[in-house]
Design a protein that fits this description.
The structure is a single chain. The protein is built from twelve helices and 16 strands. The chain has 368 residues and is of the alpha/beta class. The strands form three sheets. The chain has a nine-stranded mixed β-sheet with strand order 10-9-8-7-13-6-14-16-15. Helix 3 links the parallel strand 3 and strand 4. Converts 2,5-diamino-6-(ribosylamino)-4(3h)-pyrimidinone 5'-phosphate into 5-amino-6-(ribosylamino)-2,4(1h,3h)-pyrimidinedione 5'-phosphate. It holds the Pfam family RibD_C.
C-alpha cells in the first residue's frame, strides 16, 4: 500500500465516528508494517480514546518500526484523553503520515514538532483536501468558538417549501427524507423558529436507526411555544433550548420545570440576537447546527452572517401560488448584485430528488 491508499483507508475509518465525536474531530488511523496493515482504529465517541491509541491497541504485530497514517495531526495536550504523541513515541513508530494540520491552538504544529524532535519521520499534507473536508465543522468551531450552521430546506422546482394552504408533507421523497435523518444524526444541534413549532408541532428527533438525537434549539423571541408542544413535553429526555428575549422568570419557569434550558438573549431587529445565540451555543459545546427554519428565520440567519452552508433538497414538482412559502423570505436584497453568493456547489441525486450543497460566501466584514 502506498501513502495515498493507506490514508484513504484512514479516512474511511474516520467516517465511522460521524455524529458521535462532536465537539472533537473525526479521526482515523492505520498502522502499516512491511507493506501490511497491522492496526487500525478511529475516534469512536467524544471522551473515548483517540484514533491513534485505538489503532495501536488493535495491532496484530509489534508496531516498532512501522508507519502510522492518521487523518489529523496527533494531539500533544491532556484533555479527556492523554496526548497521542506520547503513545506514538512509546510504540516505536518510525514514521507518521498526516492528512490535515490541526488548527486547535493547543496542537497547531506542536504535535509534529514533538515527533520530529524525537527522531520520528513526519510526512504532512497527504490527501489534505479530503482530510480537511472531513472536519470542516471542527475546523470552523475550533477557530471561531461558534457552531457551523447548515441551512437546510426542501423545495419544489418553482421554489416553494409548501402549498398555498400551508401543506408541506411531503415535498420530497423517501430517499431524500432518509438523508435528512442522517444529517440530524451528524449535526449536534437542530434549530427552528417558534413559527415552525406553532404550525407543525415537530419532534425534531433523529429517526435513523441507532442515530443520535440533536440538541433542539427553538428561537422564540416572546416565549410563545405552547407548554404542551412535543419539544417541551419530551425535554426531560432530549436536550431542548429555548432562545428568547423574554426575561420574565414566571414565564420561563414553566419550560424549565419541563426540562428545557432557557437562554435569555438580547433583541436584534425584532428577534433573538442570533450572533449572541451562536456564542452561547458554542460555549455549550454545540459545534454544529442544522437550521430547519422557515423563510423568516432563514433570512435573519443569512442577514446576520451565521450560515456557512446551504443544503437545498429539490423535488421535481411545481406548486405555484403567489402566497406559497419560499425558503428565504424577509426583506430580501434590492438587486441581483446584492445576492448572497454560494460557492463550491456539489449535487447529489436522492431518488427522484436532487440535493445541492453549497458554501455561503460572505464579505469579510460580515462573516460570523
Amino acid at each position: 500500500m502506498n501513502d495515498a491508499e493507506s490514508m484513504r483507508l484512514a479516512l474511511a475509518l474516520a467516517e465511522r465516528g460521524r455524529g458521535w465525536t462532536a465537539p472533537n474531530p473525526m479521526v482515523g488511523a492505520v498502522i502499516v508494517k512491511d507493506g501490511a496493515v497491522i492496526g487500525q482504529g478511529w475516534h469512536e465517541r467524544y471522551g473515548k480514546p483517540h484514533a491513534e491509541r485505538n489503532a495501536l491497541e488493535a495491532c496484530t504485530a509489534d508496531p516498532a518500526g512501522a508507519i502510522m497514517y492518521v487523518t489529523l495531526e496527533p494531539c500533544c495536550h491532556h484533555g479527556k484523553q492523554p496526548p497521542c504523541v506520547e503513545a506514538i513515541l512509546a510504540s516505536g513508530i518510525r514514521r507518521v503520515v498526516i492528512g490535515s494540520a490541526d488548527p486547535n491552538p493547543l496542537v497547531a504544529g506542536k504535535g509534529v514538532a514533538i515527533l520530529r524532535s524525537h527522531g520520528v519521520e513526519v510526512t504532512e499534507n497527504v490527501l489534505r483536501e479530503e482530510c480537511d473536508a472531513l472536519n470542516r465543522i471542527f475546523f470552523h468551531y475550533i477557530t471561531t468558538g461558534r457552531p457551523f450552521v447548515s441551512m437546510k430546506y426542501a423545495m419544489t422546482m418553482d421554489g416553494k417549501i409548501a402549498a398555498y394552504t400551508g401543506a408541506s408533507k411531503w415535498v420530497t421523497g423517501e430517499t431524500a427524507r432518509r438523508h435528512v435523518q442522517q444529517q440530524r444524526h451528524r449535526f449536534r444541534g437542530i434549530m427552528v423558529g417558534v413559527g415552525t413549532v406553532l404550525a407543525d408541532d415537530p419532534l425534531l428527533t433523529c429517526r435513523m436507526e441507532n442515530g443520535r438525537n440533536p440538541v433542539r434549539i427553538i428561537c422564540d423571541t416572546h416565549l410563545r411555544t405552547p407548554p404542551q408542544a412535543q419539544v417541551v413535553a419530551t425535554a426531560d429526555q432530549i436536550p431542548t433550548i429555548l432562545a428568547t428575549c423574554c426575561a420574565d422568570p414566571e414565564r420561563q419557569v414553566v419550560y424549565q420545570r419541563a426540562g428545557c434550558q432557557v437562554l435569555c438573549l438580547n433583541e436584534e431587529n425584532g428577534h433573538v440576537d442570533l450572533r449572541q445565540l451562536m456564542e452561547r451555543l458554542g460555549q455549550e459545546q454545540i459545534d454544529s447546527i442544522l437550521l430547519e427554519g422557515g423563510g423568516t428565520l432563514n433570512w435573519a440567519a443569512l442577514e446576520c452572517g451565521i450560515v456557512q452552508q446551504v443544503q437545498a433538497y429539490i423535488a421535481p414538482k411545481l406548486l405555484g401560488g403567489r402566497d406559497a412559502k419560499t425558503p428565504v423570505e424577509g426583506v430580501g436584497v434590492p438587486t441581483p448584485d446584492d445576492a448572497f453568493r454560494l460557492k463550491n456547489s456539489r449535487m447529489e441525486r436522492l431518488g427522484e430528488d436532487l440535493l445541492i450543497e453549497s458554501e455561503v460566501e460572505y464579505p469579510c466584514s460580515q462573516e460570523s
